[in-house]
UniProtKB/TrEMBL annotation, chains A, B:
Keywords: Magnesium, Transferase. GO terms for molecular function: LPPG:FO 2-phospho-L-lactate transferase activity; magnesium ion binding. Gene3D superfamilies: CofD-like domain (1.10.8.240), CofD-like domains (3.40.50.10680). InterPro entries: CofD, CofD-like_dom_sf, FbiA/CofD. This is LPPG:FO 2-phospho-L-lactate transferase. NCBIfam families: F420_cofD.
């Protein structure tokens, strides 16, 4: 694998953890991380890209490890002062984190693309992997709930995922094109595998797959596509994945994840807790410990995914 | 004076000190502070109004007393992180201070005027005096120097006032109208006096006087107009006033200040160090201690200015 490139699709916290493990194993420039931007929003006049930032902070080893997002050793003077001025404080922006949003917003207004900006800022923080926003166009995740149709952050942060979800849609996805770097990464003749990180399939990976042609490019790639299930024994590690699956009438089970990605993935990675599900699947499964509690966990899981992909790649090649 | 209203014209640090003294003596709503906005600029996509902020922080007792501007107990995480991202750091924005710029910028974009925003933010910080930006139009101070024509903050902060000044101009002033609140304050039948604070006449007060009709409204007001000289014994208390006067070929002397305001002011307040100049003036002078080192100094000078105005006001009335 070290001679080829690897693409990983990722959303926020869970995906970033595996991405960080992969980044430690892959040579500089060989790991391409395609990131969800459906959660992006404008707030306080700033352009905020939560999943990109979580990924940048995680890879730059700046992340707040307790939260999984935001910066560690953060200060909160801005938020405090903003509250005193009567400003909106429901979305917590740390002082150091603000630099990212201010600089991104400034550069976007100056005409740079989100892809260019992300590459520049990641390079400044010495990140050796390529962080590729799924698109430079505007795609916005909206959640249809019993409390009406909500902007993603309104649902996710302001309302703390409490409303019941009826449907999820991705405004702008149909007209959006994958970013140029995304297409290059998927068409790279050195590409060896595509890994779908254990992010929320419905909120974090689906926006990506809804962009014109992207799902098809992945499904028809000549390399193994492997998903790491975000469900362990019927529960999500973090976030509202299990709750949303229930509300959407989907069994909270890794089988449902495999079903959701049917036609797209060639194999799946399951936790030991779901070992019994492996035989019910029509695709190969790697059973391992998928819970990433520390850096060693991330790296080990990343290593296993890479080895699994290499094994499948060999099989694919042998079959070709 | 407590039954009437008072108008003061002010720029940054020096003016804000006297304004704070006046604010402690005047009843709520009776002090109207007309503030220079020629120093305003857009930086990092944020709309920054340095003189308004210095005044707000000073009146709200939030100011960094060592600098005279910015907030005390400030943190600098944003600036540090911005530097790491390769952003511009020559204009130092503290974390709490940022809230002011972000909230102002957001409200301006939403269509509020600078006057409305300033009133709202000042009210949030329990400021009982009216802070009135000189205009809601865009006026920008530009400094013609031996290093070319510079934006004010470029000259003042980035180049630390080092270039030699040949001329100062106020782009947009001719087409700018005084803000509605400014006109109301000057036309108030209860107005008792107008005080020109010891701000830099050339950089901080002239922008104000260059706005269509404002100089005339002040010059023809039926109340005493008093300037407090920012020069003490040939030196400016703070900032580049004396250096600029020298470069513009003006004697660094309170006589030159009186000359500069000729036709506009009815009286001047001089420091004891300039006692000998009083007799060379064609207008009444109050000689006192004009250096404001502490709150007591501010309040005493404010009290003396108010008493001086009342005395002149009586004289004006008697003469009318």
């Amino acid at each position: 694998m070290t001679k080829g490139t690897l693409v990983a699709l990722t959303g926020g916290v869970g995906g970033a953890k595996l991405a960080a493990g992969l980044a430690r194993l892959m040579p500089a420039g060989k790991l391409k991380l395609i990131v969800n931007t459906g959660d992006d929003f404008e707030h306080l006049g700033l352009q905020i890209s939560p999943d990109i930032d979580t990924l940048i902070y995680t890879l730059a080893n700046l992340v707040n490890q307790e939260n999984g997002w935001g910066r560690r050793d953060e200060t909160w003077s801005f938020m405090q002062a903003l509250g005193e001025l009567g400003g909106e404080t429901w979305f917590r922006l740390g002082d150091a984190d603000l630099a990212m949003h201010v600089e991104r917003t400034r550069r976007l207004r100056a005409g740079e693309t989100l892809s260019q900006i992300t590459a520049t800022l990641a390079r400044k923080l010495s990140i050796a992997s390529d962080i590729l926003p799924m698109t430079d166009h505007r795609v916005r995740t909206r959640v249809e709930t019993d409390a009406g149709t909500l902007d993603f952050q309104d649902y996710f942060v302001r309302k703390a995922c409490k409303p019941t979800v009826n449907a999820i849609r991705f405004d702008g996805a149909e007209g959006a094109q994958p970013a140029a770097g995304v297409i290059r990464a998927l068409e790279d003749p050195d590409l060896r595998a595509i890994i779908i990180c254990p992010s929320n399939p419905y909120l974090s990976i689906d926006p990506l797959l809804s962009i014109a042609g992207l799902r098809e490019r992945i499904a028809t790639a000549a390399v193994p596509v492997i998903a790491v299930s975000p469900i362990i024994g019927g529960a999500a590690v973090k976030g509202p994945t299990a709750k949303i699956m229930k509300e959407l009438g989907i069994a909270q089970c890794s089988l449902a994840i495999a079903q959701h990605y049917r036609g797209l993935i060639d194999a799946i990675v399951l936790d030991h807790a779901d070992r019994h599900l492996a035989e019910q699947l029509a695709i190969p499964a790697l059973v391992t410990n998928t819970l990433m509690r520390c850096e060693q966990d991330r790296e080990r899981l990343a290593e296993e995914c890479i080895a699994f992909a290499a094994q499948l790649h060999g099989r694919t090649r042998a079959g070709a």
